[in-house]
């Protein structure tokens, strides 16, 4: 069932658009927009809270940090270990790339680093919870499987290319200065970590109380994830207002291969964190108890995998830090892997 907002005359796609109609209906339109976003946000709020609680626990206990430090000692198992770290880590793509570069400087091969970088934006405890609440558990499990498969694929392809210009000493544009990325005086500004300014770190320095640190991390995570959720909901409500519903639902429900390529390629220049992409889809397919969401498998994977993995800020740092061939490899793995996964799931005789 496609959700429709009652947004005055502008919601009627049979009426010609005019700025006069827009100005006349602006107060009602804004009221309905706020109402629509509020209703959907309240619906998903419990899942948001649960997901942020999981991530706050992981960050407080520093489980992901402990695994990260062990990555350089995993040897042949480094790629699977990096993939599992990626799906368990609460870090987004923009936070993962400086971490990955620091690991490369510390001696981690590019293959597990690429697996971590590809996997991290696709799944996290909060992402799994939010997808389950908004699109259903089957879609959450599907994205989790896609994240693991894509991470392993990226890692082992990079490993095969190691002797073809992708060894650790051949990938950076120039040698990075030695030092701690957490040092406020680290000379490379793009990699300089400012986590020491976060509320949770200030609380930790002042109190050393894990309980207070946990709630500070919960507050930070809630603000970060809630922001991306709201962005997705606003985009969805505005799209319902100005774009004919049939265009969007036809693309997302399309069973052919054209929607897969169209969505994957369209998502490349967009910055779509996982919860934002999920929130956009949620508005079009608001699930009721017992309802099957009519979202095509291929199109859904193209949106939920292709959107988050090709983040513009990540590619910008790639361009400034790495040689061009590393960026080409990253985009090829992400785009090619997304299309392959979407086509495979489309062909499988399963229902999501």
Radius of gyration: 21 Å
Choose one word for the global shape. globular
- What structural category characterises the helix and strand content? mainly alpha
- Secondary structure tally, helices: 15
Largest sheet: none
Number of strands: 0
Helix content: 55-70%
String of helices and strands: HHHHHHHHHHHHHHH
Q: Give the end-to-end Cα distance, rounded to a whole number of Å.
A: 16 Å
Q: Please tell me the total number of domains.
A: 1
Q: Could you tell me the strand content as a percent range?
A: under 5%
Mean pLDDT: 76
- Could you list the spans in which at least 5 consecutive residues all have pLDDT below 50? 1-17
Keywords:
about 350 residues; mainly alpha; disordered N terminus
């Amino acid at each position: 069932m496609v959700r429709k907002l009652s947004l005055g005359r502008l919601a009627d796609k049979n009426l010609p658009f005019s700025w006069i109609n827009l100005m006349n209906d602006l107060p009602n339109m804004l009221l309905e927009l706020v109402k629509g976003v509020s209703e959907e946000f309240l619906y998903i709020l419990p899942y948001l809270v649960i997901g942020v609680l999981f991530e706050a626990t992981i960050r407080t206990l520093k489980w992901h940090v402990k695994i990260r430090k062990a990555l350089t000692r995993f040897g042949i198992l480094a790629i699977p270990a990096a993939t599992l770290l990626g799906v368990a880590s609460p870090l987004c793509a923009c936070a993962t790339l400086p971490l990955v570069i620091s690991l490369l400087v510390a001696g981690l091969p590019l293959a597990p680093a690429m697996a971590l970088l590809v996997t991290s934006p696709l799944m996290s405890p909060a992402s799994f919870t939010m997808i389950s609440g908004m699109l259903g558990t089957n879609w959450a499990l599907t994205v989790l499987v896609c994240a693991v498969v894509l991470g392993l694929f990226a890692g082992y392809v990079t490993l095969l290319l190691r002797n073809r210009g992708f060894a650790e000493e051949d990938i950076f544009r120039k040698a990075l200065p030695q030092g701690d990325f957490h040092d406020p005086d680290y000379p490379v500004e793009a990699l300089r970590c400012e986590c020491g300014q976060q509320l949770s770190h200030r609380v930790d320095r002042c109190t050393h109380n894990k309980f207070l640190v946990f709630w500070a991390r919960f507050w930070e995570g809630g603000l970060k994830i809630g922001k991306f959720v709201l962005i997705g909901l606003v985009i969805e409500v505005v799209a319902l207002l100005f774009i004919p519903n049939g265009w969007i639902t036809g693309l997302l429900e399309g069973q052919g291969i054209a929607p897969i390529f169209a969505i994957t390629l369209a998502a490349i220049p967009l910055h779509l964190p996982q919860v934002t992409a999920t929130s956009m889809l949620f508005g079009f397919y608001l699930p009721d108890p017992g309802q099957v969401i009519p979202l095509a498998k291929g199109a859904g994977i193209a949106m939920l995998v292709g959107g988050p993995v090709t983040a513009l800020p990540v590619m910008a740092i790639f361009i400034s830090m790495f040689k061009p061939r590393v960026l080409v490899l990253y985009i090829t793995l992400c785009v090619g892997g997304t299309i392959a996964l979407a086509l495979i799931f489309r062909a499988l005789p399963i229902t999501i």
